[in-house]
C-alpha cells in the first residue's frame, strides 16, 4: 500500500503516473499478495482510472490488472472496466496502440472462460469487439472460435448467430486468396468446424437455410464449400430416416449440393462429393420405389 501511495503522489501532466500504475499491476500479477491487499489496491487504482480521459492511458492501466481481477473473480471491477472502455471508445478513432491493448484485455478475458455464453453476456463485450479491426480483431475472433470448437454442438440460435457474425468478420479480415498462409488455413478450419457443430435439432429447414447463408458468406473458399456439402448430405440422410415425411426437404438438400459442388475447383474433390451425394440420392430412390 505504501508503493500505491507513492504512485498516487506522482500525478503530474505527464503519463508517469499511468506507467507507474501499470508497472505496479504487473508486479502484483507476478506475486501472490494477500486477498485484502489485492482488493484495496485494485479498488484504489480503478477509482484513479475513472478520471483518465485518454483511452490510451486508461487501457494501459486496466490491462495490467486484468489477470488479478479475473483470477480473484472480482466481477464488479470487470464490469466497471468494460463500461469505462465503452464510454471512452464512443465516437472515437481507435489507434494501433489502443487496438493492441484492447486485444490484450479481451484475450485475457477469453483465456479465463470456458463458456462463451458467459463472455457474450458481459455488458459491452460485443460492443468493444465490434470497434476493433485488423490483426487484433482477427486474433480475438480466432480465440473465440477456438473456445466454441471445444464446447460440443451449438444449439442456441443466439450463440449461433453471434458466431456466424464473428466468422464473417474473420473472413473479411484475412486474405483468403493466399490459402497457404498458416493463419488463413487455421481460420478456414475454425469456420468449417463451426459449421459442423451447428445443430438445429428437428428444425431441419432452418439448418439448411443456415447452410445457404454460409455458402453466400464463404463461397470463395473450397474447403468450406466441401464442409457445406457434407453437412447438407448429413441433413438429408437424417431426414430420410423418418421415411417419406421429409422427401421435399431431402430434394432441397440435393439441389443445394448440385449447385455447390460445381463451384469447387478441385476435380477430384468434386468427384468424391458427387459420389457421396449420389449415395443419398440412391437412398431416396429406394424409399420412393
State mean pLDDT (0 to 100 scale): 90
For the report, how would you describe the main beta sheet?
none
Distance between the termini: 83 Å
Please indicate the percent range of residues in DSSP E strands (runs of 2 or more): under 5%
The number of helical runs is 15
Specify the helix fraction band: over 70%
Q: Which overall shape is indicated by the principal axes computed on the Cα atoms?
A: elongated
Low-confidence stretches: none
Which secondary-structure class do the elements indicate? mainly alpha
Count of strand segments: 0
Radius of gyration: 25 Å
Multimeric organization = single chain
Following the backbone from N to C, one meets helices and strands in this order, namely HHHHHHHHHHHHHHH
Keywords: Endosome, Protein transport, Transport
Family: Belongs to the VPS35L family.
Subcellular location: Endosome
InterPro entries: VPS35L (IPR029705)
Amino acid at each position: 500500500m505504501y508503493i500505491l501511495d507513492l504512485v498516487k503522489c506522482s500525478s503530474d501532466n505527464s503519463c508517469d503516473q499511468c506507467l507507474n500504475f501499470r508497472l505496479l499491476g504487473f508486479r502484483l500479477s507476478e506475486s501472490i499478495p494477500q486477498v485484502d491487499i489485492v482488493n484495496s489496491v485494485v479498488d484504489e487504482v480503478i477509482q484513479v482510472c475513472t478520471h483518465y480521459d485518454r483511452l490510451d492511458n486508461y487501457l494501459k492501466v486496466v490491462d495490467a490488472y486484468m489477470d488479478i481481477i479475473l483470477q480473484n473473480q472480482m466481477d464488479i471491477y470487470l464490469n466497471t472496466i468494460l463500461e469505462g472502455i465503452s464510454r471512452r471508445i464512443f465516437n472515437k478513432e481507435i489507434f494501433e496502440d489502443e487496438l493492441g491493448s484492447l486485444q490484450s484485455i479481451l484475450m485475457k478475458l477469453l483465456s479465463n472462460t470456458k463458456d462463451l455464453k458467459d463472455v457474450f453476456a458481459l455488458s459491452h463485450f460485443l460492443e468493444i469487439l465490434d470497434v476493433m479491426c485488423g490483426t487484433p480483431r482477427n486474433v480475438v475472433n480466432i480465440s473465440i472460435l477456438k473456445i466454441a470448437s471445444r464446447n460440443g454442438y451449438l444449439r442456441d440460435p443466439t450463440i449461433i448467430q453471434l458466431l456466424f457474425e464473428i466468422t464473417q468478420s474473420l473472413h473479411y479480415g484475412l486474405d483468403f486468396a493466399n490459402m497457404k498462409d498458416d493463419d488463413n488455413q487455421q481460420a478456414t478450419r475454425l469456420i468449417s468446424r463451426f459449421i459442423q457443430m451447428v445443430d438445429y435439432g428437428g428444425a431441419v429447414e432452418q439448418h439448411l437455410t443456415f447452410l445457404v447463408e454460409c455458402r453466400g458468406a464463404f463461397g470463395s473458399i473450397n474447403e468450406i464449400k466441401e464442409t457445406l456439402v457434407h453437412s447438407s448430405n448429413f441433413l438429408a440422410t437424417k431426414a430420410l430416416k423418418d421415411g417419406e415425411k421429409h422427401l421435399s426437404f431431402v430434394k432441397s438438400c440435393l439441389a443445394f449440393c448440385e449447385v455447390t459442388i460445381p463451384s469447387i475447383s478441385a476435380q477430384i474433390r468434386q468427384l468424391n462429393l458427387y459420389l457421396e451425394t449420389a449415395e443419398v440420392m440412391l437412398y431416396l430412390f429406394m424409399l420412393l420405389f
